[in-house]
UniProtKB/TrEMBL annotation:
It comes from Undibacterium arcticum. Keywords: Cytoplasm, FAD, Flavoprotein, NAD, Oxidoreductase, Redox-active center. Belongs to the class-I pyridine nucleotide-disulfide oxidoreductase family. Its main location: cytoplasm. Its EC number is 1.8.1.4. This is Dihydrolipoyl dehydrogenase.
Length: 475
C-alpha cells in the first residue's frame, strides 16, 4: 500500500472532483481516482459532464445556433451573409478545445488544493482496521488506504435492448457529439434532455431530424403548459416529434439504420436513418467498482443505496451523484459532494432537492424549479398562477427572440412560491432568481416588489410574479 488518506474519492466528475476539493479545504488528506483518458491517453478529469456531456454539448449547441442565425436571422438585423458554409471540423475542434480547458482546469484545482490524483480505475480491494484498501488499476497498479470513501462513479447511457451502441450508426451521447459529417436523415429515440439537445444541434446544421418518444405526452416531467409551448416551437423549427411510439426493431446495416415502430394510432411504420441517437435514459455506473468485496449494498435498480445524507450501508463509505437516487444532474452531484465532505468534517451539509433547477439547453431554453401545475393538482394544493410572455418584453424584442413565457405557481393562501417554469431566451440564467427566492421561501409578492433592470429579460420574471395577483403592468 503506497499511502493512506483521510478521504479517497472514486470518480473525478462534477460530484467527485468538487467533493475532493471541499474535503481538502476542510483540512483532510485527499486522493481522487479517475480513469477518463484524453486522445493521447492522458487524464481527462471532469467525467461524463466535461468529456461527453454538459460541456461539449453546450459548445455544439452554441456553434450550431450561430450557424442558424447566420443563415436565417442576421438579414433582419441588416447583416448580409454571402457564401455561408459549414466547417464542421473546426466546430468539433473548438468543442474539443473547450473540453480540454475544463479537463486541465480540474487538474489545476487539484494541485492548488493539494489533492493527490491517481489516473486509473478505482475499486474496493478490502476493508481493514483503518478503513478501506482501494485498488487503482491504470498504467501502473497501486493500492491506497482510505478512512472515508466517496463513490462518485456516475452513470452510463442506457442502451436499447437489441440495439447496442456502436458509436458509428447507433449513437449514445458520446457518438452523437462526435459525428464527422452532418447526416441527411437523423433519428432520435427519446425526447428527453439529451435527445432534444442533440436533435437540435444536427437539425440546425442541416439534418432532417425525427424524434421518436414512447410517452404519450411531450416532456412529461415538465409543467405541461410550458411543454406544450415548447412542442409548438420545436415543431415550427422543423423538429419532427412523434409521441406514443413503440419501437419494435432496430437494425443496423452497412451505412444506415432501419427502425420499425408502431405510432400512436397503432400503425406500423418503418424509417431509415443515416444515424440513430438513442437517448432513453442513463443507468448507474458500478462496473468494476468491486463493491461486493466489502459488502456495498445496491438497490433494486442498481444504484448505490444511500440514506438522506448519502451514507451507504458501510461505515465511512458515502456515494453521490448519478450513481445514487435523485436527479441525474451535474449540479446535484456537486451539492452532494460538498455536503458529504462537510458531514465527514462533522458539519451539517445541506442539499435541498426541492430547489434543484433543471435546464434543457435547446432554443428556446427550458428551465424550471419546484413543482409543476400537474403535481399541485394531484396533491390537491390550492395555488395561483401568473404568466408573462416574452413577446411583451422589450429586451426579448431587441434580441429578436420573443418565444415562450415565464410561469409562477404560488400557494393560494400564503403566496409562497411553489414553482417557476420558463421557456424562452436565456431561461438557464433566469431560473437562478427563482431558485434563490424559493430557497428563502419567498412569496410571489416579494419578487413582484423587487426592482428589475430595464430593459432586461428578468423583467419577465417580475411581470409573471405580478400576474399571480392579476396586476401585470405590460401585458
Amino acid at each position: 500500500m503506497s499511502k493512506n488518506f483521510d478521504v479517497v474519492v472514486i470518480g473525478g466528475g462534477p460530484g467527485g472532483y468538487v467533493a475532493a476539493i471541499r474535503a481538502a479545504q476542510l483540512g483532510f488528506s485527499v486522493a481522487c481516482i479517475d480513469e477518463w483518458k484524453d486522445g493521447k491517453g492522458g487524464p481527462a478529469l471532469g467525467g461524463t459532464c466535461t468529456n461527453i456531456g454538459c460541456i461539449p454539448s453546450k459548445a455544439l449547441l452554441q456553434s450550431s445556433e450561430h450557424y442558424e442565425h447566420a443563415g436565417h436571422t442576421f438579414a433582419e438585423h441588416g447583416i448580409d451573409v454571402k457564401g455561408l458554409s459549414l466547417n464542421l471540423d473546426q466546430m468539433q475542434k473548438r468543442k474539443a478545445n473547450i473540453v480540454k480547458q475544463n479537463n486541465d482546469g480540474v487538474l489545476y484545482l487539484f494541485k492548488k488544493n493539494k489533492v493527490s490524483f491517481f489516473h486509473g480505475r478505482g475499486s474496493f480491494a478490502a476493508a481493514d482496521a483503518n478503513g478501506y484498501q482501494i485498488k487503482v488499476t491504470g498504467a501502473a497498479e497501486d493500492t491506497i488506504g482510505a478512512k472515508h470513501v466517496i463513490v462518485a462513479t456516475g452513470s452510463n447511457a442506457r442502451p436499447l435492448p437489441g440495439a447496442d451502441f456502436d458509436e458509428k450508426l447507433i449513437l449514445s451521447n458520446d457518438g452523437a457529439l462526435a459525428v464527422g459529417a452532418v447526416p441527411k436523415k437523423l433519428g432520435v429515440i427519446g425526447a428527453g434532455v439529451i435527445g432534444l439537445e442533440m436533435g437540435s444541434v444536427w437539425r440546425r446544421l442541416g439534418a432532417d431530424v425525427i424524434v421518436l418518444e414512447a410517452l404519450p405526452v411531450f416532456l412529461g416531467a415538465v409543467d405541461q403548459q410550458i411543454a406544450k409551448e415548447a412542442h409548438k416551437l420545436f415543431t415550427k423549427q422543423g423538429l419532427a416529434i412523434s409521441l406514443g411510439v413503440k419501437i419494435n426493431a432496430v437494425t443496423a446495416g452497412k451505412k444506415d439504420v432501419t427502425v420499425e415502430y408502431t405510432d400512436d394510432k397503432g400503425t406500423a411504420q418503418t424509417a431509415v436513418f443515416d444515424k440513430l441517437i438513442v437517448s432513453i435514459g442513463r443507468v448507474p455506473n458500478t462496473i468494476g467498482l468491486s463493491g461486493e468485496a466489502v459488502g456495498l449494498k445496491l438497490d433494486e435498480r442498481g444504484f448505490v443505496a444511500v440514506d438522506a445524507d448519502c451514507k451507504t450501508n458501510l461505515p465511512n463509505v458515502w456515494a453521490i451523484g448519478d450513481v445514487v437516487r435523485g436527479p441525474m444532474l451535474a449540479h446535484k452531484a456537486e451539492e452532494e459532494g460538498v455536503a458529504v465532505a462537510e458531514r465527514i468534517a462533522g458539519q451539517h451539509g445541506h442539499v435541498n432537492f426541492n430547489t434543484i433547477p433543471w435546464v434543457i439547453y435547446t432554443s428556446p431554453e427550458i428551465s424550471w424549479v419546484g413543482q409543476t401545475e400537474q403535481q399541485l393538482k394531484e396533491q390537491g394544493v390550492a395555488y395561483k398562477v401568473g404568466t408573462f410572455p416574452f413577446m411583451a418584453n422589450g429586451r426579448a424584442r431587441a434580441l429578436g427572440d420573443t418565444s415562450g413565457m415565464v410561469k409562477f405557481l404560488a400557494d393560494a393562501n400564503s403566496d409562497e412560491i411553489l414553482g417557476v417554469h420558463i421557456v424562452g431566451p436565456m431561461a438557464s440564467e433566469l431560473i437562478a432568481e427563482a431558485v434563490v427566492a424559493m430557497e428563502f421561501r419567498a412569496s410571489s409578492e416579494d419578487i413582484a416588489r423587487i426592482c428589475h433592470a430595464h430593459p432586461s429579460l428578468s423583467e419577465a420574471t417580475k411581470e409573471a410574479a405580478l400576474a399571480v395577483d392579476k396586476r401585470s403592468l405590460n401585458f
